[in-house]
């Protein structure tokens, strides 16, 4: 529990609230009493005097805050630099072979880039897959944790885990790159994966997400970048500590085809056979799937973590969402990193989930709708993290992570269906307040703990020093571009696993 919420009661007076089911809306104004960051009671407005402090919430619509299930804060300084690149060509720009010379203060400011926009657009919880390689610097991880602490958002930070160098996981790399190029890609001093695991476990003693607003989780990068031994160690640690797990799986056609080409099985099948799939484990992206993959995920209780806007920007494809939902798979939502998408605005993500999946199927009665998208961004996100008893809905006993929207805002005028109007029409301009653990961290469109404009000034100053470094790293990446383009083209010709559900219109 955040110490700032101890021994404190606040009553939200007169709000129209989303019901406990997470999709229907109450018809009468309610008072919501919050004690020590937890929803203590929900009752008809005016039926009892307000307790403790009170917030006039008349003419507002209160919903649970969005849970951004996937973000990479290490990409935030690359915002706006790339477009019209598939993942495999883009990735080297935001994870250069030679790491940028960043200070702990740079990390602090970089983390705030995504956190500011998250809160200001209605996200109360963010999952940060944080690149801390090739050499673990605990001060950098602590700087990210402090940024989330200071701004007031709920966050789960996972230092990325892998023991196969990124370039070694790329198919045909040894055929398409010279020995000199491969040598330049090989990291020098590298912190062993076991040390990263030990570090996360030690942090969990005081940063477990069940008991702390800013916590940690386990973030193995992807099956192709982790040995089976590391994946088994992650699963063992997750089972022992109860920490959530996130892992990228078959985001692109290249990944799906190369897995089948190299192993004769999908990466989902491989993870299942290792015993890696389990509740509290999020399979990030999961764009390219077979029916067998979907059945395995459903049977395991693992979640699929959907990032529709990032998948669109990188041309990765459109996951078979309706099939996943019909199979009973829990789906959460996220933005992915700002290097690929530029934004941590979950309002855009929720709207697009409810829009783009109408491209699949001719039975309009089975199209994905606003209610399913909103559920994925709230209760689905909480379940993916194993925190459904604490987060995701307006319910007595839940943490008071909620967003109040003004009902006189354009998106809600005239008021017909508040939830649909929120999903399809709200831009964030109608936000009245954002509460995390019962504390008001956004009021009247402004952060209450930090000055967003001052943060921007500090970031601009840091970027004056870092832009030349980023440009130099990009210049080196450009020398790799021809080889990676040949690899990408070769993989387009590789067959997919039989029964793979097409995720692009040209397949």
Which outline best applies?
Answer: globular
Structural class designation: alpha/beta
What is the averaged pLDDT score? 95
Radius of gyration: 22 Å
End-to-end CA span: 49 Å
Low-pLDDT parts are: 1-5
Query: What is the count of DSSP helices, taking H or I runs of 4+ residues?
Result: 18
Oligomer, anyone?
single chain
State the major sheet. Answer: 9 strands, mixed
**Helical fraction:** 25-40%
The count of DSSP E runs of length 2 or more, i.e. the number of strands, is 18
List the helices and strands and how they pair.
Blueprint lengths: L8 E9 L12 E6 L2 E7 L8 E4 L3 E5 L1 E6 L15 H8 L9 H17 L2 E8 L7 H14 L2 E8 L11 H4 L2 H7 L7 H15 L6 E3 L2 E2 L7 H14 L3 E5 L3 H11 L3 H8 L6 E5 L5 H10 L2 E4 L1 H6 L7 H6 L3 E4 L4 H4 L4 H11 L13 H8 L1 H6 L17 E5 L11 H8 L5 E6 L2 E5 L2 E2 L4 H41 L15
Parallel strand pairs: 1-4, 1-5, 6-7, 7-8, 8-9, 8-10, 11-12, 12-13, 13-14
Antiparallel strand pairs: 1-2, 2-3, 5-15, 15-16, 16-17, 17-18
General description of the model:
There is one protein chain. The chain is of the alpha/beta class and 507 residues long. The chain has 18 helices and 18 strands. Residues 1-5 have low confidence and may be disordered. Helix 2 (104-120) packs across helix 18. The strands form three sheets. Strands 1, 2, 3, 4, 5, 15, 16, 17 and 18 form a nine-stranded mixed β-sheet that branches. Strands 6, 7, 8, 9 and 10 form a five-stranded parallel β-sheet that branches. Strands 11-12-13-14 form a four-stranded parallel β-sheet.
